[in-house]
Design a protein that fits this description.
- The protein is an alpha+beta fold.
- The chain folds into 2 domains: 224 residues, Rossmann fold; 123 residues, no CATH class.
- It is built from 8 helices and 20 strands.
- The strands form 4 sheets. The chain has a 6-stranded mixed β-sheet, with helices on both faces.
- Helix 2 crosses helix 3, helix 2 packs parallel to helix 4 and helix 3 crosses helix 4.
- The relative contact order is 0.11.
- The chain binds adenosine-5'-triphosphate.
- Adenosine-5'-triphosphate binds next to strand 2 and helix 1.
């Protein structure tokens, strides 16, 4: 029986319950997404979570085994029918640039326009404009082999935008470049996307890249979206412990709560328990009166208590030990290990002895609670 899906209005991309099976392996297990025109979505997640598989369905390179995909309210993919890539008005940028080595830069960028039968002068004008937009004005006569990796990726970007696509797709385009170049090109791509206003989907496993570029970030795990939100929301209000762990927001500790009162063991001594009352806003992932679950202690919520200092006010404290320190830009980035092995990170002015026992003051207003999730099907 064919499932029924709604025809989305005013949405550039709408994925409804998308599934992808490869034989018995279920690579996408029901993806729902909506992307407004001109917005940039990053697909972020660990290796093998299904980012590229989802991008290939958007590109028309894979046909979904379930669900439906709409571009501008028109269905482009379902298990029954699939619009081919060349009819989807797409621009694509891949990790390996995929430039034709025997063509000049201008030849590469203008190829699709020539195939569309545009007049020579028109092709030239649009190629020149696209090259200027990516910072390669005047380099159209060069061969790809005469360019650096970063410049080749700019050519690929110019080629993707020159035909004014309705949707731009990026598959880890910066992962072959060194760190400095990655950072600068990433901000440039972000600015360019805002300038041209094209809807875009960008696959990456790099948190910073996702935040720099995207209006929304979908964090994926094992073929599902764990959370889709703005970078600010994701970092400030992670929806579950898996998202918090993946984003490395801090330590995620097993705990117990009754109402808003959370208790966790703070030391190897079973009697040592920290008890805090969380603000209502930090309990969004809680239901029912009491529950076993996990407490996120973000790195930003902790401060090392000076040796010998007495606890101030009723700030809760954890006992931990110094696990490692690295000197960076005049300060020590300090890893603190909690009894269960989880680590928190903070900055110190001074070097501390390795394995020294320390007390860690915790700002309870920054803690977040997650009820233990039922076992995944
Ligand atoms: N054609 C295929 N046949 C069988 N399995 C596949 C196929 N394509 C992808 N897979 C599997 O589907 C899962 C998701 O793969 P995908 O490439 O989408 O992950 P990813 O999140 O993009 O990972 P990475 O960041 O490493 O590129 C993986 O387990 C992969 O092995």
């Amino acid at each position: 029986m064919q499932e029924s899906f709604h025809r989305p209005q005013g949405v550039a991309v709408s994925a409804q319950a998308l599934q992808q099976r490869f034989g018995s392996f279920h690579a996408l297990k029901g993806i729902d997404l909506e992307l407004a025109p001109g917005r940039v979505l990053a697909l972020l997640g660990p290796s093998g979570c299904g980012k590229s598989t989802l991008l290939k369905i958007l590109a028309g390179l894979n046909q979904p085994s379930g669900g439906a995909l709409y571009f501008d309210g028109k269905q482009v993919a379902s298990p029954q029918a699939c619009t081919p890539p060349q009819q989807r008005r797409l621009g694509m940028v891949f990790q390996d640039y995929a430039l034709w080595p025997h063509m000049t830069v201008a030849g590469n960028v203008g190829f699709a326009l020539r195939m569309q039968g545009l007049a020579r002068a028109q092709v030239q004008a649009r190629v020149d404009r696209a090259l200027a937009q990516v910072g390669l004005a005047g380099m159209g006569h060069r061969q790809p082999a005469e360019l650096s990796g970063g410049q080749q990726q700019r050519v690929a970007l110019a080629r993707a935008i020159v035909a004014q696509p309705a949707l731009l797709l990026f598959d880890e385009p910066l992962s072959n470049l060194d760190r400095d170049l990655r950072e600068s090109l990433c901000s440039e791509i972000g600015l360019l996307l805002r300038e041209i206003g094209t809807t875009a989907v960008y696959v990456t496993h790099d948190h910073e890249e996702a935040c720099t570029l995207a209006d929304e970030v979908a964090v994926m795990f094992s073929g599902r979206i764990g959370q889709c939100a703005s970078p600010q929301q994701l970092w400030g209000q992670p929806a579950n412990a898996e998202v918090a762990r993946f984003l490395k927001l801090g330590a995620v500790l097993p705990a117990w709560r009754e109402g808003r009162v959370v208790r966790l063991q703070t030391d190897t001594d079973a009697a040592a328990t920290m008890q805090v009352t969380l603000p209502e806003a930090n309990m969004a992932a809680a239901s029912g009166p009491s529950h076993q679950g996990q407490l996120l202690v973000p790195d930003s919520a902790i401060a090392l208590q000076q040796a010998g200092a007495t606890a101030t006010g009723d700030a809760p404290t954890l006992t931990a030990h110094i696990a490692a320190q690295q000197y960076r830009s005049g300060r020590w980035r300090t890893a603190i290990a909690l009894p269960g092995g989880e680590q928190l990170h903070t900055w110190c002015r001074e070097r501390l002895p390795l394995h020294a026992r320390v007390a860690v003051r915790v700002d309870a207003t920054q803690l977040r609670w997650f009820d233990a999730a039922p076992a995944a099907a």
